[in-house]
Specification:
Blueprint lengths: L1 E9 L4 H12 L3 E4 L3 E3 L10 E10 L4 H14 L16 E8 L8 E3 L2 E3 L8 H10 L4 E2 L3 E2 H6 L3 H5 L3 E2 L10
Antiparallel strand pairs: 1-4, 1-5, 2-4, 3-4, 3-10, 6-7, 8-9
Helix pairs in contact: 1-2
Bound molecules: adenosine-5'-triphosphate (ATP) and 2-amino-6-hydroxymethyl-7,8-dihydro-3H-pteridin-4-one (PH2).
Adenosine-5'-triphosphate (ATP) binds next to α2, β5 and β7.
Length: 175
């Protein structure tokens, strides 16, 4: 069994529809989904606000690279177009593999640029940490510590204040 946490985000088109389609596409692998947060864009201010959420997935047959393949497949299904000139530009759907655990429950570590684990910027991103804490309040990020400590630490705290919970925009794994 490999387990993973995926971060999903959208700031173009039908934002909620893109997130829902990503969750639906993950099928039976979905264990639990977080609430949805509306968040100001980080890294490139000239773009619309994002909807962000986190999904816990598990599949006995999945290798770590399979989660990245599923993430990319979901992005393609949402019609994501990559603009090489805008590293952190707007997108219909972004699915990041935040963390993976092996079948003994140990975190998988990787410095492969194709799949770096844990995700190298996850510990700095309130829009990743806050939804993940929703679904795993006692979670740890390998190499960084408790999620709750990270969320309360500078410089993440400033971003955390700008997270706007959207309970009106529920994600349903079986919708
Ligand atoms: N943990 C990971 N999750 C997703 N992609 C990763 C990961 N580690 C490395 N990558 C690589 O990063 C490349 C760029 O991914 P992507 O376009 O989603 O980045 P981004 O969303 O613009 O930025 P960020 O990674 O900071 O969220 C992908 O082609 C992928 O191979
Ligand atoms: N609020 C927010 N900002 C971002 C996001 C995101 O998911 N949410 N993703 C980015 C590219 O990875 C760049 N900036």
């Amino acid at each position: 069994m490999t387990r993973a946490v995926l971060s999903i985000g959208s700031n173009l088109g039908d934002r909620l529809g893109h997130l829902r389609a990503a969750v639906t596409g993950l099928g039976d692998a979905v264990l639990v989904v977080s609430g949805v947060y509306e968040t100001p864009p980080l890294g490139d201010a000239e773009q619309p606000a994002y909807l962000n959420a986190a999904v816990m997935v598990a599949d006995p047959a999945a290798a770590p690279g399979d989660w990245l393949a599923r993430a990319h497949a979901a992005e393609r299904s949402a019609g994501r177009v990559r603009d090489p000139a805008r590293r952190f530009g707007p997108r219909t759907l972004d699915v990041d593999v935040v963390a993976v655990w092996d079948d003994t429950g140990r975190p998988v570590l990787s410095d492969d640029p194709e799949l770096t684990l844990p995700h190298p910027r996850a510990h700095q991103r309130a829009f990743v940490l806050r939804p993940w804490i929703d679904i795993d309040p006692h979670g740890r990020l390998a190499g960084h510590g408790w999620l709750t400590d990270l969320l309360n630490a500078e410089p993440v705290a400033g971003d955390a204040l700008e997270l706007n919970p959207r309970p009106d925009l529920a994600l349903e794994s079986d919708s």
